[in-house]
Amino acid sequence: MFWIFLVTFTMSEMMNGYSTKGNQIGRCPSDGSTEVFALEREPAYLSCRLCNASTLLTMNDLKALGLTITWFKEIHKNGPVEPLVKMDRIVAEGLMLEFWPATVNDTGRYFCSLFNGTHNITGPNMSLFAVPINKGCYTLELTYGQTGVIGSSIELHCPQIEYKNNIEDLKWYKNCQENIHTGSSLLFKKLEKENAGYYTCKLTVEHFGVQYNLTRTLSLTLKEPLVEPKLIYPLKEHIEVVLGENRTINCTAVAGNGMKLQMHLNWFLGESPVVKCNQAQPVCKNEMREEIENNIRYIVRPLIFTQIKEEQLNKCFKCFLKTSGEITSGCIILQQKGKSDVHGVITLLVSILVVLIAVAIGCVVFNVEIALCFRDLTGKDETLKDSKEYDAYVLLLESNETLLSAEEEQQFALELLPAILEKQFGYRLCIFERDVPPGGTADDILFYINKCRRLIIILSKEYVDDECSSMYELMTGLHQVLVETKIKPILIELKPINSIKSLPESLQLVLKSKRTVKWKGSKSAFKQSYFWKKVRYLMPAKGGQRANKSLWFHEKTPVTNM
C-alpha cells in the first residue's frame, strides 16, 4: 500500500501545472526561506502554501475545488517520505499543521499535498527545527539581530510571533532579568549605551486548557551616531603676539567616525595659499598630520610664523576644510600684544551710540504716530469700567461782543470736531449748545463735565472777557483739571496766540503744558494732518477706533474751508 502511495506522490511532483476544473493549481512564488524554527516545548505551525494562478489558496478555495489536504514528513534527508501519523500533539487544521508543542524529534522536512480524487498536487518543502531550551532565558541559535544608533529612537517588535490575538500581553525581559515592559512593542525614545543587550519577549497562549509560552529574543546592538567632518579651530580668533617671536598655530578638524572621507586642510592669506615650509620663510604651512585622542580622529595642519612681522598684523589668515561635498573656513588675526584693536571697539561703541540717539530722536519726533500705531495694534481701551458717559466736554471760549461774528469758530466746534472725532473715531462728545437741554443751569454744566474724560478748550483769541458767556464753564472745567484732577485738558489754539499774559493764570498753565494743539489753517485742513493725529493722541485710547480707510487715507481732501 505504501508503494502505491509513493508512486502517487512522485507523479504529483511532476504535475505542478495540472489544471483542476480550469484552475491552474501549483506552488506559490518563493518569498524567501521556508525554514521554520521553534524552541522545544513551545507551539509552532507550518503553512501549506499552494496558489491558484499565483493567488494563495484559502480553505474556501479547497472546498470549492473539492480538494483535500494531506501532510507528509521526510524520514531522512533525500530519503523516503511517509504520511504524517495523526496524534493529539500534532494537529492538521485547515491549511496549517500545528504542533502543541514541538519536540526535537519533529525536526525534518514536511510536505503538503492536495488530492481531488484523481491526482495529487504537492506544495513546497518546509522544515521545522526545534532545539532544547537553553539554561538561560534565550537561545543564541534562535536570536534575532537588531541595530540602533545612540541618541536616536527605536521600537522593538517581537519577531515571528504568529498568535496575534493577545499580542498586547507580551512581556519583555532584558538579559533574563525581571519584566521591564508589557505590550506589543518596546519603545526607546532616545537610545543610550546601556540599552544594548538581549531582549526576550514572551507570550502565553492556551490550547485545550494547557498554557504554553512563546519566546523570541532580540539582540540589540548599538553604534555611535555618524559624526561629520568639522572644523573646530580656528573659527574667528584674535591672537596677541610679540613682534619677532616664533609662533605655530594648528588648524584642526574632527575627521568623523563614518567612512574615511577625502579631507583636505589648507591655509590662505587673501586669495593666495600660504607656501609650504621648505626653506626659511617668515610664514609657511606644514603637511597635514593625523592625531588620535579619546578614540576621536583629528586632522591637523600647522601654520608656522618663524618671525612675526608688523605687516602680518591685523590680517586674516584663513584655514579651509574641504570635504567631498562641503567647504568651511576659519580665520586668525594677529594683534600686537598690548595694542588691541581699540579703533574697532571705539567704532562699535560710536555706532551703537548713534543708533540709540537716532532711535531716541525718532521716538520724540514720531511719538504721536508710534502711540497711535500701538493703540491700533493692541486694541487698547481706556474707557472701560470708568463709569464716564462722554469722552470729552467741548468748550468754545467766546465773548458776547463777538458772538455774532463767531461763525467760523462755531463751525469748528459744532460741526467739524464731532464730524471727525465722533463719526470717524467713535468718540462721544458733550457739546453744551447741542447736548444740554435749553435753559440749563450752572449745576447742569458741572454735572456734564463730571461725566466726561477730557475737557477740550477751543481758544480763538488772545483774551477772555470776564463777562464771557462761557466763563463759568471755563472756571468749572479748570477747577476740575487743576484742583481735583478728575479730567485731563486738551487746549486747541484755533488762532495764533501772541501773548498769553492776557489770559487767566489757570488757562496760562494749561497753555504751557504739552496738551496743546495748534490749528494751522489749510495745513491742518486735511484729515491725515498732524493736527488730527495729535488730538486723537490726547484723547483716551478707545478699542476699535481705526479710521475709515476710504475716508481717511484715500483722497487728500480738506475737511473744511477754514
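^ that was protein a. below is b, sequence first then the C-alpha cells
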Amino acid sequence: MNIFQSKLSGFLFIFQFSFLLLLFHTLSRAEPLYNKFYYFNCSLDNNTADTTFETNLNTLLPVLAFNSQYVAFFNAESGINPNTIYGLFLCRGDVTVDTCKTCVSHASQEIKQLCPNQRDAFIWYDHCMLRYSGHNFQSVYDPSYNSLVLTRSLYNTSDPRQFKETLMSLMKNLSLVAAFNPSVRMHAIGEANFMVNQKIYAMVQCTPDLSRSDCNTCLQAAISEIPVCCTDKDGAVISGASCALRYEVFPFYVGAASVSRPPPPSTTAATSRNGGKRSKVIIFVTVASVLGFALFTSFVYCYQRLRKKRSSKVKKKSHHVLLEYLGLRVGSELMDSSMDGEQTQELALIDLSTIQVATDNFSDKNKLGEGGFGPVYKGMLFDGKEIAVKRLSRGSVQGQEEFKNEVTFIAKLQHRNLVRLLYCCIDRGEKLLIYEYMPNTSLDIFLFDPIKRAQLGWERCRNIVDGIAKGLVYLHEDSRLRIIHRDLKASNVLLDHEMNPKISDFGMARFLEGNQSQINTNKVVGTYGYMAPEYAMGGRFSVKSDVYSFGVLLLEIVSGKRNNDLHLPDHAQSLLTYAWELWCGGRALELIDHLFMESCPTNEMLRWIHIGLLCVQEDAIDRPTISSVVLMLRSESMALPQPTQPGFFVSRMVVEPGKFSASTTRTPSMNEITISTIEPR
C-alpha cells in the first residue's frame, strides 16, 4: 500500500509540474492584453458648423463610456431629428468588465480626435469597437466595413492545404454557434489542431442588436474574405461595423473554447510514428492531460445539456400556462379556436427575474405612467436594448381582458406603424407585456403642449398623419384579420426615435369575422371625444368607427386643441362643433394653429380640415374608408365631396354608468350607456 501511494504521489507531482510548464509556455506565447488600435473610419460629411449635432455627440459619448462598466454592448441615441445621433459600443465577448470599461472610455475620447467634426465615425480596437452616426444604423446589418484585413507574418507549415481546410472548417463552425446558439450572445471562440503541436485559435462576434440571420450573413461575408486575403498568413483580423473575426496560431482570447476539433487522422498517424523518440513520462502526462480534459469537457457538456433541458421544460411549462390563461389550445403554435384556425407565431417568453433586473425591480424612478391596464415601466435588457414593460394590476378586471386581447392580436400583427410586442411573461403571479421602447413618448405629449408642439413642425406632422393612416389601412384591409382598434387617440400613438408614429394599445381591439361589416356590443368602452356616435349611442362599431376617431385626431393635429377642450372660442361645445361652424361660415383658416401658418401650405391645411370633417360625419355610410383617406391626403387633384354635419353627441354630456341592450334606439339616453374612460398610458 505504501509503494502504491508513493507511485501515485510521484505521478501527481509529474502531472502538476508538466501542467505548470504547459501553462507557462502558453502564457509566454500569448499577446499582452491591451487596447491595441486596429482601425478607424470617418465620413466625408463635415459638421464643423453644426453645433447642435456636436452638442448631441458630446452628450452621447459619455453615456456610452458610462454604461461600459455594466454591459458589454450598449446602443443609445441623443437629440431629435434632423440632429439625432446614434451610437453603440461592443466589447469583445471574452474580456473582463474593467478591460471593457477602459477600452470604451479610451475609444470615446480617441474617436473625436481622429474624426473631428465628422457626422459618422467608426473605431476598432483589440478589445472593443465604438461607432456613431447621424443615420440610424441600429439593428441593421451594415456590410460597408467588411473589407478591413490585418494580417501577420507567413506561417510555417508543411501542409498549407490542411491549414486552409482546418481554418475554414473552424470558422464556419464558430459562425453557426455565434449566430444560432441561443445560449451565447453572438460570440464564439474555438481552436483546432492542424499540426502535431500547433493549433489555430479563432474568435467571431456580432453586435447583439442584429437578428441571428443577419449575424450569420455578416460572418459568412467576413469568412469569404479569408481565401482571398489570408490563408497564407498565420493570423488575421477582419472587422466590420456589424461583426468581426480573428484567428491566430497562439491563444489570444480569455476563457475556454466553445468549439474544438481534434487533430486530423494523418497528423495523428505521423505523431505515432515519431512517438518512440519521446520520453515515456511526457507521453504518459500528455495522455493523462487529454483524458482529464476530455472528462472535464464531457462534464461541462452534460451539465449544459441538463441546464438546457430544464430551461426548455420551464419554458414549455410557462408557455402552456400562458396559453391556458389566454384560453388558447396548447401546441407548437398559438391557435385561437375562435379565429377559424388561423395560426400565428409562438410568443417569445421571458422570465420574471430578467424583467426585475431590467426595471430595477419595478422602481418608481423607472415608472413611465399608469392606465387602466396597470403601471408601465422603462427597462433595459442585458444587451442594452431599452424596453417598456406593462405590468398588469392584480385587481384590474379590465386589465385582465386587455392583457389577453393585446397578446392575441399583436402576435398576429407586424407593421412599421404598429408598436411591437417583444416578450410576454406570466410568472409567480405577475403578468407582463414587454414592448419596444418609444423614446419620444406619445403624440399627445407634443400635440397639446405649446412648447413641445413647436418641435413637431409641418413635415413631421405630415409624416405622423400619413403613418397613422397607413397603420389603420393595415389593420382594416391588409392584415390577416380585419381589426377594429376602437381606442385610437393621440395618447395611443407612440413616437419612436425618428418621430415615426406607431399605433399602440390593442386592449379594446376586435376583429371582423368572414363577411361581417359591423359588430354589436352591449358594453361600450373607449375614450370620451373619440367615439363614433353609432358606437357610443347604439353599441355598433365597424371600421368606420376608427375612421371617425382618425378624423377627430386629424382636426386636433391641425388646431393643436383637444376635442373636449374647455377653452374653445365662441363657446363651442367641442372641437367638432367649432370646426363645423368655421367651415360653414367660410372661416376654416381660423382653425389652423398659428404655429403652422408660416411653415405649411394653406391649401394643404384646408384640405386636411376638409378630410377631417368627412371622417367625422354623423352617418357612418357617408364616411370614407381609411384607404380612401390615404389617397385624399396624397393627391391634391382628387376631388373631395362636401361633408355633412358631424355627430355632435360628444358635447359635454355627463354619462352615468348603466347597461343597454343591442336593440337600444339611437335616441341618447343618459343612463343607458356604459363608458370606460381610459387615461393616457
